[in-house]
Amino acid sequence: MAGPTTAERGERQQDSPGPLPLRRLSPRRARVLLALVLALVLCASGGVWVLYGSPWLRVRHVSVSGTRVLTPQQVREAADVPLGASLVSVDTDAIEARLRRELPRIRRVDAVRSWPHGIGLKVTERNPVLLVRKGGNFVEVDSEGVRFATVSDAPKGVPLLELTLSRAGSAAASLRRFDEDRLVREAVRVAGAVPAGVAQRTRAVKVRTYDAISLELGGGRSVLWGSAEDGRAKARVLTALMKAAPDARHFDVSVPTAPASSGS
Questions:
Q1: Topology at the third CATH level for domain 61-125
Q2: Mean pLDDT for the stretch of residues 94-104
Q3: Nearest Cα to 106, choosing from 97, 116, 114, 115?
Q4: What DSSP string describes 84-110?
Q5: Which top CATH class is 130-262?
Q6: Residue 60 phi, psi (nearest 5)
């Protein structure tokens, strides 16, 4: 049987309804659609106004937690949070950067929104592991080798860092290779590796060169540590050596496979 002619196909296309989106809406449906669009626009506009323009979600207070040496007031002043600003518009990243810049004692800070009216500042302070004497004051050095604060009174239990750097002979060559900042970081590594029992008695960490670091203990005792390498092995050997020679005054663990003690 022959198929429909071209004329018949044309007639069918004219009789068939067009796609639904192109069909003409009834007045009632058009009104409903318009009302829905207006409602969505109003809701969006209202939401923006509530977040940015209304008096309901404004910064009214700033809370501070985690401080030890710093005071909450110092943190608030350095943070300079804009009271009265819309809470959603406060730049928390800028607050964190400003606090780290203005208060170097802060190692980390998290600024978080506390709905509906607050900003919370969670502070983590740096802890001193060594002190550098500077005139009549002390510069605190943390576990990353960062010199972060100058204080008039030395914190208890924190040893002094004494840099007695030689600039002659082989020591001068070592200093050219390892500058002062690097040597400070090496001293910090040593301080972190010293056994807890010995750390409590350590009065000073002395640095002459990269591989000539020593500990000054209370009671006139000393430990030649050497470089900061093999810290765990040196700590184990030192603990064993002090037990084996409890009356010795000088200990050498610079080569942990061949430790030595002397004096009594």
A1: Ubiquitin-like (UB roll) (3.10.20)
A2: 97
A3: 97
A4: TSBGGG--HHHHHHHHHHH-TTEEEEE
A5: alpha beta
A6: -115, -20
